[in-house]
């Protein structure tokens, strides 16, 4: 279902648009994803709506078949990309799992701000974005996903999330469509 409406208190949640993640080989150009996310952040801020900037600092413990190699990361790996134009009023979340809710203050922050809907964007579609969207939906938020402000390491995996998973979690649309619906 295409995006139809945004609640008056909608927050933007930008997942893992940090230097280390953006530098990975992605299915769609990361620079366009970053530009679209930046446009959304600017639009939300100009309307006094919450912007949440999420960064990954490590991973959850546990064995998986596709663990990324555990290695020393460059000092700026977790720094947000400058194109997001981080502002003092933005809420930052540091996570150590795929999703931005687990083990963080995200839910408490959103509820404290009176948020009833979230727009989720970032990298990677099938990990941080999808996990965050799933948890938001489970917590009772309306969920919108700006699909041109996200990408994955795999085009096939990205397409699966966008066409099969996201319509079950909320509504999807483009950056332009989301901005046009902002209150």
UniProtKB/TrEMBL annotation:
- Name the source's superkingdom: Bacteria
Which of UniProt's keywords are assigned here?
Hydrolase
- Isochorismatase-like domain boundaries: 10-177
Q: Which GO terms describe its molecular function?
A: hydrolase activity
Q: Does the keyword Membrane apply?
A: no
- Pfam (any one): Isochorismatase
Cited InterPro entries = Isochorismatase-like_dom, Isochorismatase-like_hydrls, Isochorismatase-like_sf
Q: What Gene3D superfamilies does its record include? A: Isochorismatase-like (3.40.50.850)
Q: Which SUPFAM superfamilies match?
A: Isochorismatase-like hydrolases (SSF52499)
PANTHER family of this UniProt entry? ISOCHORISMATASE FAMILY PROTEIN YECD, PEROXYUREIDOACRYLATE/UREIDOACRYLATE AMIDOHYDROLASE-RELATED
* Name the UniProt record assigns to this protein: Isochorismatase family protein
* Native species: Umezawaea endophytica
């Amino acid at each position: 279902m295409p995006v139809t409406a945004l609640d008056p208190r909608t927050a933007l949640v930008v997942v893992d648009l940090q230097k280390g993640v953006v530098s990975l080989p992605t299915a769609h150009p990361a620079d366009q994803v970053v530009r679209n996310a930046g446009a959304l952040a600017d639009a939300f801020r100009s309307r006094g709506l919450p912007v949440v900037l999420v960064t990954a600092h490590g991973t959850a413990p546990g064995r998986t078949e596709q663990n990324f190699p555990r290695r020393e990361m460059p000092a700026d790996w977790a720094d947000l990309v400058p194109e997001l134009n981080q502002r003092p009023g933005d809420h930052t979340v540091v996570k150590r799992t795929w999703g931005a809710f687990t083990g963080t203050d995200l839910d408490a922050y959103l509820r404290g701000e009176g948020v009833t809907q979230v727009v989720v964007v970032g990298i990677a579609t099938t990990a941080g974005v999808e996990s965050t969207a799933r948890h938001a939906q489970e917590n009772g938020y309306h969920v919108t996903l700006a699909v041109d402000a996200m990408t994955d390491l795999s085009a096939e995996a990205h397409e699966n999330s966008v066409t099969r998973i996201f319509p079950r979690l909320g509504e999807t649309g483009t950056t332009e469509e989301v901005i046009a619906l902002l209150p």
